[in-house]
Amino acid sequence: MDIFGFIGAGLVMGISAIGSGIGIGIAGSATIGAWKRCYKANKPAPMLLLTFAGAPLTQTIYGFILMQQMSNALEAGANGGKLLGFGIGTGLAIAFSAIAQGKAGAAGADAFGDTGQGFTNYIAVVGICETVALFAMVLSMISLG
Q1: Around Cβ 41, how many Cβ atoms within 10 Å?
Q2: Number of compact structural domains in the chain
Q3: Residue 75 belongs to a domain with what CATH number?
Q4: Backbone angles phi, psi at 47, to 5 degrees
Q5: Which residues of the chain have a pLDDT value below 70?
Q6: What are the CA-CA distances from residue 109 to residues 22, 32, 114 (Å)?
Q7: d(Cα 113, Cα 57) in Å, to the nearest integer?
Q8: CA nearest 2: which of 87, 68, 73, 74?
Q9: Residue 6: how many other CB atoms lie within 10 Å
């Protein structure tokens, strides 16, 4: 078995999880700030804001799923250099999706925390960011054969 393939499989998971952590940190900070403003104004803090904070977590799952598929491909004789490329490229695509999702979630948390309106609109934008990660994962899986 090719060591580069194992490195690639590990990198897709690790890079995806790093992106999730960054995205959660961005959206989570804004969520806490929105709750603070609610408390200061003596109005209820909407628990729906947790949706924005937690949304980037799913990219870690996508990295894990692809890592499993890459490991299976490696055991079936796939080229390790190809898997290394997939791991880095797809891991970065998934990570940047999570970061973008965190930024969109931060804006959504801020807006919804202030107005209590527009949740569906804001979560739709967060979902569009998610789609990039899904496409990267699925298209990589298809390309693995």
Answers
A1: 11
A2: 1
A3: 1.20.120.610
A4: -70, -15
A5: 1
A6: 16, 9, 8
A7: 21
A8: 74
A9: 17
Where are the alpha helices (H) located in 1-145, listed in sequence order? 3-40, 49-54, 58-75, 80-115, 119-144
Q: Measured between alpha carbons, how far is residue 31 from residues 26, 28, 73, 104 in Å?
A: 9, 5, 40, 12
Residue-wise pLDDT for 32-60, tens only, equals 999 999 999 999 999 999 999 999 999 99
This prediction's pTM: 0.94
Query: Are the beta carbons of 27 and 51 closer than 8 angstroms?
Result: no
Q: How far is 50 from 42, CA to CA, in rounded Å?
A: 19
- Please write the tens of the pLDDT for every residue from 84-94: 999 999 999 99
| Distance separating alpha carbons of residues 106 and 27, to the nearest angstrom | 4
- Residue 35's identity, in one-letter code, is W
Q: Which domain does 59 fall in, by range?
A: 3-144
